[in-house]
Automatic annotation (TrEMBL):
GO MF annotations, alphabetized: ribosomal small subunit binding
Keywords from the UniProt entry: Plasmid
InterPro entries: HPF/YfiA_ribosome-assoc (IPR050574), Ribosom_S30AE_C (IPR032528), Ribosom_S30AE_C_sf (IPR038416)
Name by which UniProt lists this protein: Ribosome-associated protein
CC annotations in GO: cytosolic small ribosomal subunit
GO biological process: negative regulation of translational elongation
Gene3D superfamilies: Sigma 54 modulation/S30EA ribosomal protein, C-terminal domain
Residues covered by the Sigma 54 modulation/S30EA ribosomal protein C-terminal domain: 102-154
Pfam families xrefs: Ribosom_S30AE_C
Amino acid sequence: MHVHIDTKREDAAIRLREAVVECFAPVSSQIGARMNIRVEESTCQYRVVIVAVRGKRTIKVQSKHNNIKRALSMAKQKLFQKIRSSKPIDLLNETTEPRQQTEEIVAYKRIDMKPMSIEEAILQMKTFHHRAFMFLRADTQRMCLLYQRGQNQYVLLEAN
């Protein structure tokens, strides 16, 4: 894995390199590809460009965001998506025994539900970068689940 940081601030270069290594060190061995990662810092956003070489295939992805962690995460998601979509057809159609996948609960949390409006729930969801949020609706006192569908579209499920 080769990392190139393009910034004018030396202290930021060290911080950016650490963030890139933390995000992509497990990934490079997992996908079995040589990766060149370039991070460019401008005045208000970060640009991440990844070029991965797997055998004879070259995959290039890029992302931009004003938060470095988010830009790296988006680039990693795009990389995995391109790798999945670029698998040879004969490998995808190969009939193998289906793996037994066991469903398990990996976390159990108890939280105090505070009544809030739908607008507050959307703001909370954006703050935590979650795609779903459960809350107690202030005007009806009903439990609701809000989830994001698309860029600025939301769905509200309300219990009877």
